[in-house]
Amino acid sequence: MKFLRSLSVQVLIALVVGLGVGAVAAVYGGPGAAKVIAGVEALGGLWLNALRMTVVPLIFAVLVTGIAQVSDAAATGRLAMRAVAWFLVLLLLSAVFAVLFVNGLLTVWPVSEASSAALRAGAQAPPVGTPIAPDFVTWVKSLAPANPIKAAAEDAVLPVVVFAVFTGFALTRLPDGRGRALLEVFNGLGEAMIVIVRWVLQAAPIGVFALGLGVGLRAGVGAAGVLGHYVVTASLSGLAVAIIAYGLAIAVGRVPVGRWARATSPVLVAAFATQSSLACLPAMIERSRDDLGAPPRVANLVLPLAVAVFRMTSPAVNLSVCIFVAKVYGLHPSTLQYVGGVLVALAVSIGSVGLPGQVSFIVSVAPICLALGLPIDLLPILLAVEVVPDIFRTLGNVTGDMAVTTIVARKAPPEAPLAAAPSQA
């Protein structure tokens, strides 16, 4: 059937089969089965390392080009600058909300300690001990890397992100377009890394199956409950951001509830079906102009710009993934680490826009985990069930795009009428 050709579906099936075979082997296989699974699991570790090797160069490349793109967009005029300002404000709101919401949710509805322990035991290379959180002086000093290459080699993501942001802005300020050549180099590097990640993801069913065997062997069926808990947590984060965007359009954009609901309903249906903001762009432009009364020049500028550089749910859902990982491992990032995680989440949400779904998940979430001092070994397992939260990501993104368009349109100057044709004497 056609849906079986989807990589996301294949990865999900591979995870389910791997967990099942591993759990059965734990009960009936004996020591021989454990040795065989350990050998197969090594393939999963190889696949995970192949993904990890692309994270730092890819995040640096896409951040440099993404920051330059945002800078160029903001320089095109007041309308674009106002839209970009709203993008940044809403991304920050999304990130801060996620830290508070997900920590509160997982306090009220905690992850099962027994299931977490089993899942930790089943993951590749669980961390030894609790990492030491940096103090304020050390954290501030670390923001500017004395040696960016050393910071990248040590997975110190926040300094790498800071260096990439400064590099992106600096390249746009070079005279005579000299920065454009370097931007093309970084763009080419990013595209090359994406090609590698796509190659690696083609083997995702095999890699996730191999990792799932180990998780099933040591965690048993208890892993399924933890994964279900994760799906609900990440999905609620995306849904909550969509509700916030909905409220902003009504409260700040001054759109009546019924009118907003009628305008967004067909777009949300398309978002649910396609899980792609880009695929929803024509419908968003049409509904914003026809139903919400946005001037064509506002809708035609803000919505394509939003699809290019803005994903409102990205910080919230990505941070929710990382916070869930922290709870599974029993780790408690410090306030400074959360500040660093929010900054990284904001940066990668801009840089990773437009990347394929599976690529975006690894590129967006892994740097935030590293900034929070968390392992990333669970991410391939969570990637396998990302198909459900991804629906709510898209719903929140298109709602945010249309909300910003409505808000910007409300204060946009009226369009000048077309000049009358001169009369012929």
Number of strands: 0
Helical residues, percent: over 70%
First and last CA, distance: 70 Å
Mean pLDDT: 84
Q: Which structural class best describes the helix and strand composition? A: mainly alpha
Give a summary of the structure in a few sentences.
By secondary structure, the protein is mainly alpha-helical. It has 19 helices and no strands.
Features:
78% helix, globular, 0% strand, disordered C terminus, single chain
Structural account:
The chain has 425 residues and is mainly alpha-helical. The chain has 19 helices and no strands. The protein has helices at residues 7-28, 30-52, 55-74, 78-108, 113-122, 136-142, 148-153, 157-171, 178-202, 204-219, 222-251, 257-274, 277-290, 296-309, 313-329, 335-351, 357-371, 379-384, 387-410. The chain is globular. The termini are far apart.
Topology (SSEs and partners):
Layout lengths: L6 H22 L1 H23 L2 H20 L3 H31 L4 H10 L13 H7 L5 H6 L3 H15 L6 H25 L1 H16 L2 H30 L5 H18 L2 H14 L5 H14 L3 H17 L5 H17 L5 H15 L7 H6 L2 H24 L15
